[in-house]
Amino acid sequence: MLLVESAAEEPRVLCIIQDTTNSKTVNERVTLNLPASTLLKKLFEDVASKVGYVNGTFDLVWGNGDNVTDTTPIDQNSDKTILDAGFEPGKKNFLHLTDKDGEQPHITSEESGTTDDCVQDRFIGPLPREGSVGCTSDYVSQSYSYSSVLSKSDTGYVGLVNQAMTCYLNSLLQTLFMTPEFRNALYKWEFEESEEDPVTSIPYQLQRLFVLLQTSKKRAIETTDVTRSFGWDSSEAWQQHDVQELCRVMFDALEQKWKQTEQADLINQLYQGKLKDYVRCLECGYEGWRIDTYLDIPLVIRPYGSNQAFASVEEALHAFIQPEILDGPNQYFCERCKKKCDARKGLRFLHFPYLLTLQLKRFDFDYTTMHRIKLNDRMTFPEELDMSIFIDVEDEKSPQTESCTDSGAENEGSCHSDQMSNDFSNDDGVDEGICLESNSAAERISKVGSEKVCLKNVLGLVNSLLYELFSVMVHSGSAAGGHYYACIKSFSDDQWYSFNDQHVSKVTFFFFTSSTNAYMLIYRLKDPARNAKFLEAHEYPDHIKQLVQKERELEEQEKRQREIERNTCKIKLFCMHPTKQIMMENKLEVHKDRTLKEAVEIAYKLMDLEEAVPLDCCRLVKYDEFHDYLERSYEGEEDTPMGLLLGGVKSTYMFDLLLETRRPDQVFQCYKPGEVMVKVHVVDLRTESVAPPISVRAYLNQTVSEFKQLISKATHLPAETMRVVLERCYNDLRLLNVSSKTLKAEGFFRSNKVFIESSESLDHHVAYTDSHLWKLLDRHANTIRLYVSLPEQSPGSQFRRSVYQKPSGDSGNLDEASERVKGPVGNMKSVEAILEESTEKLKSLSLQQQQEGDNGDSSKSTEASDFENIESPSNEIDSSAENRELENQIQISDPENLQSEERSDSDVNNDRSTSSVDSDILSSSHSSDTLCNVDNAPIPLANGLDSHSITSSRRSKANQGKKETWDTAEEDSGTDSEYDESGKSRGEAQYMYFKSEPYTADEGSGEGQKWLMVHVDKRITLSAFKQHLEPFVGVPSSHFKVFRVYASNQEFESVRLNETLSSFSDDNKITIRLGRALKKGEYRVKVYQLLVNEPEPCKFLLDAVFAKGMTVRQSKEELLPQLREQCGLDLTIDRFRLRKKTWKNPGTVFLDYHIYEEDINISSNWEVFLEILDGVEKMKSMSQLAVLSRRWRPSEMKLDCFQEVVLESSSVEELKEKLSEVSGIPLENIEFAKGRGTFPCDISILEIHQDLDWNPKVSTLNVWPLYICDDGAVIFYRDKTEELMELTDEQRNELMKKESSRLQKTGHRVTYSPRKEKALKIYLDGAPNKDLTQD
């Protein structure tokens, strides 16, 4: 790890300063680690220097640290030390940099070295570890930096911005930039714009990046132009790759781009070496070989099968060329001996490149855990590496006549980090630094190596292959993710620097003796004749000089633009359009030095008011949009700068601006600070109307009496008889009856709403809460408007149309409204009486049908259980005749005979049910509602009703997790009884306002559909609301359902009768559908048939109703007639069973004596399987286990049908015995495996023999890896002595086609392909080819 100069021994104070003056700097922090004796003046100077502000133009206040209560600015001119001022050594001292006197800090003329894009911490001085302030450790985990982060003026180098996870790219780019030979060669290449698009030219974008790295005044620059030239989109920034892999891919791309140019062979000249891959026969000495090229040498950290890592790079290099013996089954066929012989196989280096790249292979695979791992073993490496001991002298001298092939890809063994991130674990980062070892490490070299050195001394080759280290790329983290940065030595001053994304820091050496995270090492050959220096500015080619000038101009332009942005006020602007009368919203951007008059002109054009109103009829006023409050106007300040009016340039303002308009004959009102806005509504008790508001401005210190006088002038109503009611919040209506009280004491705020009434009626003498005024205001506050869609041909709708031929508007007589709920009034009396009579007769008819049901005539009630069309009752109808007619039209079934009641609800086609997955999704947001997709066309039934009545209403399942607890609360049923125990309607318990009138809906809402516009008190219960709708629907409230319509035409059934309409709001839509509503303790259940041996094993049958306390046998009895009539299944009660359904998987078998809610958890819109039995029910107790077995016949390549096997225990031995009984396979030859996935656990017959986990080594079924604890598990079994059929290629292809076709229908794949890591690619044409045939 790199060390820094030791800090002073006196206590140090850690200060963390957050710049809160601008939205773009609010996330920036400046970290200072200062001696405790530092003066406050020096603190301000340091902060000003580092953030680029003029000292004295900003304040520092205590931030949100521990035990901080003082919010006053710190005295800048004090002679106190920071210790005396309250700063604490050993703790983090948080400070906020704020505006001074409402003005933003002034920016220094010099470049601060910070870009808007960089939001990382700025750091000054060595940062101590947590809890040890004052120590010399300098590790910064937040930014992966381990040294003082210096500005460019100190280091002279520019960082690179990390786009997201591009630290690996930044490390490589900085290394290439710091390589003189590569940078100089890149500068000599000239881009021809006529031949290529500059955006997609990789060499040109690298040129631009290098020029910016060399000349920019910024702290860090972006790499987006370079990655765009690679053909990458923004998603690539979130993919971390291996830096060695990137190096190889980038070099390949550059070679392709540089073809037929002077730089065509640049990569090979700098980075390419040669080695010999040989095999030597140990009997005759014959050697076969080939010459390969390489760009890097991959060195193993830890030998295969060993727990001991190599101690140094030299040892790893020796291991790299160490030959292996091919013997035994691995013998080599010698062409000279004409037989297999023992041989020696190995590699010899023939030529080393000018720039030597060593990759330390730290990523490996652990075959024990089957996971990727990173090897953090220590491995030393020298600052100077002598490679002459590794060269093969004889091969170097021998002629090389054979053609060379680049097999570096085979040898490099690059490892990829899977989905790496910038975060890394401290456990893996024990040593974040670089290790250099002294030349004494050569003592570890073997005796053979020493002999080679002596030989090379004789040949005069010593020092010709001496390399110096100049770049180390470090990976901190684990195999799952981490962070790359580079430590590079500058050849200009021989100084080491850390290039860590945006941060560039000087390393004031020395090194530890080893490293655990160094990943790539790059050495340069020490050869004075070849070692180049960086080109000076005067040596640049002309095209580079032009590029430098161009980039400087662009940077200066960006700087000016940033300066403008820093001085631009951005604030929300509102305007009520004078003709359209709609509130418009926009953002006003105005320079802080622009005057108010100029800002009005800008806002006037921004709101496009040129044709609506003259400019001199507009002004800007201070506005609070949230409270709809005009705070103040700016009279006489037309020439005042906006920066002064708005309190400086800020990231956000606590207020807005309103562009106010007037007519030419009007005069603007003066709005003074401290005034409050009051919207006054005049109430007329006689007409029971509330007038639209008029605005009045008042002061909080005014009394109620003075306020009444103010209102009297505005409304021309007498103040003496005036009653003023303040609505402080929802449903809080307060009468202001103490004249001497101030408005502030009464609870007035910025924006207020009051109601006034000035009549001389007797209502003044009634207690306020009993007065007509209070009732009217209470109704006004709680009344909502709903649009109700009635079912087609509903009996009561035509009556209502005749009554409400003339709409009465929003207001009406309160007493009439009261009677409208209680009973008939005026000219409505006869109609209301008839409707009430009809309802009573329906109820009496219900009782009559119940008695008939008790007499056993269930079949009759079943056949007539569907609702028929009900004609409007006539004014003159004979009582008995009417009863007979109603009896023919409506048959109300016996509530105990559930199948007859649900007839109309379940007479639908089978494919309109909802899967449990859909239900689970819906349950999270609508726990008490039922989804209905009204986009599906209604299906006409025999009785003229549409099928949406029940089957389209899909209730989300209750929380799946609760099912296993066998404990469902009463309210989870989603229903409440409409009547209490005494039989009295709950809706009659409290009087609530209800008023309705016919309404013509918009086009597209359904031809011939009838609508009501209802004004109703939202405190009414759903039960009472339904009872008020009974006359319009024409059936009792228990026989229709209420659906709330949401966006996208989705409908959710409202079923909680005791809940109020408080969740509804104005203009909500409601749909009424015919069908019996559930009673308390009842649940709607969807019944599916389980067909285990059919291609589609899950078939919807019908909807049923199960009740709490009902046994399974009773529910089966209820289902029998419905199955016979609706599904054509004539069954006896012992011929079928019910069982749990989870998605498409069959589960627990329900026994006849089980009770719903006690033994079986049941929820709304529950789903069950009905399974027809082949014989007598074998399941008698819960201790048994029913599994579905299926035999695999490998010799015939086929699967038999499912057979149920009932076990008395979870013993594997018993399972094998049962399988042996049903199949005839000897017990000792039985092998079994558990099926995977959703029932029926389909798998290709080409894969089943080897892909399943056959014959698991367990003794019971309820343990890993089987976990068979419930009925319905799928077991495949086979005879282990049966051989697998051998298939020809034609047979295999034909079988694969059939299996593919079969499994695609069921949604299963023929082959399993794990998700592959995304490959790193650079696209030479600038964009990826969308080849759908490729992975």
UniProtKB/TrEMBL annotation:
Catalytic activity as recorded in UniProt: Thiol-dependent hydrolysis of ester, thioester, amide, peptide and isopeptide bonds formed by the C-terminal Gly of ubiquitin (a 76-residue protein attached to proteins as an intracellular targeting signal)
Bias kind Basic and acidic residues: ranges: 900-910
Region of interest: Disordered: 396-420, 794-827, 842-930, 942-985
Keyword Coiled coil: yes
Domain USP: 158-526
Compositional bias of kind Low complexity: 913-929
InterPro entries in the record: Papain-like_cys_pep_sf, Peptidase_C19, Peptidase_C19_UCH, USP, USP47_C, USP_CS
CDD domains attached to this UniProt entry: peptidase_C19C, Ubl_ubiquitin_like
Positions in coiled-coil regions: 540-567
Tagged with keyword DNA-binding: no
Keywords, sorted A to Z: Coiled coil, Hydrolase, Protease, Thiol protease, Ubl conjugation pathway
GO biological process per UniProt: protein deubiquitination; proteolysis
Bias kind Polar residues: ranges: 400-420, 871-880, 888-898
A molecular function (GO) term: cysteine-type deubiquitinase activity
Pfam family, one: UCH
Protein name (database record): Ubiquitin carboxyl-terminal hydrolase 47
